[in-house]
Amino acid sequence: MTKAGSMPKPHRRKQHGMVGTATYKSWSDMIQRCTNPNCNGYANWGGRGIKVHEPWKDFRNFLADMGVKPEGATLDRKDVNGNYEPGNCRYVSFQEQAANKRINCLNRNGIEGVWYDAQKRRWIVKIGLHNWNKHIGTYDDFFEACCARMSAVNFFRNELWSF
């Protein structure tokens, strides 16, 4: 009941009740990366021409197509150069997503984290995660360098993602 002469409070319209959830955060981050030039990651998504499927700009449509994000999962595009759209998006573990990323444009051999230093005449191996880089070593042989990289990736996956 309201007091005499006062207006009742308007009811807030509840659209989906998902604000603050991990699913909503993934959707919101996707929208920002692809549409907001002021977003830190824009250059790697929207700036490269990666777009969001038009109906997915409404969270309810995204939720209907993708469902609730499983715990410990992340939103991933199967084709890293493709758009955020049905058929190209899925929820995967952090390990799967780390394996599905594009190779740096300066890389000439196709193996991420392995490159040839012409001055030293050796293969350099590094592994990176976010802003953290770890020098693994230098190698005479390309195959040996690739094996060292794979071993390091497996080791650090177990160390960093075992939470």
Descriptive report:
There is one protein chain. The chain is an alpha+beta fold and 163 residues long. It has 2 domains: 22-99, no CATH class; 114-160. The protein has helices spanning 22-35, 59-66, 94-99, 142-160; strands at residues 73-77, 89-93, 114-117, 122-129, 132-139. Strands 3-4-5 form a 3-stranded antiparallel beta sheet, covered by helices on one side. The chain has a two-stranded antiparallel sheet with strand order 1-2. The longest helix is centred in the last third of the chain and has 19 residues, at 142-160. It is elongated, with a radius of gyration of 22 Å. The mean pLDDT is 78.
Features:
163 residues; three-stranded antiparallel sheet; 2 domains; elongated; alpha+beta
Q: Pick out the low-confidence regions.
A: none
Query: SSE string, helix = H, strand = E?
Result: HHEEHEEEH
What is the CA-atom radius of gyration, in angstroms? 22 Å
Number of domain modules: 2
Any idea what the shape is? elongated
Distance between the ends: 50 Å
Label the structural class.
alpha+beta
How much helicity do the residues have? 25-40%
Note the total helix count: 4
**What composes the largest sheet?**
3 strands, antiparallel
Number of strands: 5
Name the average pLDDT. Answer: 78
Beta content: 15-25%
Short structural summary:
The chain has 2 domains: 22-99, no CATH class; 114-160. The chain is built from 4 helices and 5 strands; from the N terminus they run ααββαβββα.
Q: How are the secondary structure elements laid out?
A:
Layout: H1 22-35, H2 59-66, E1 73-77, E2 89-93, H3 94-99, E3 114-117, E4 122-129, E5 132-139, H4 142-160
Antiparallel strand pairs: 1-2, 3-4, 4-5
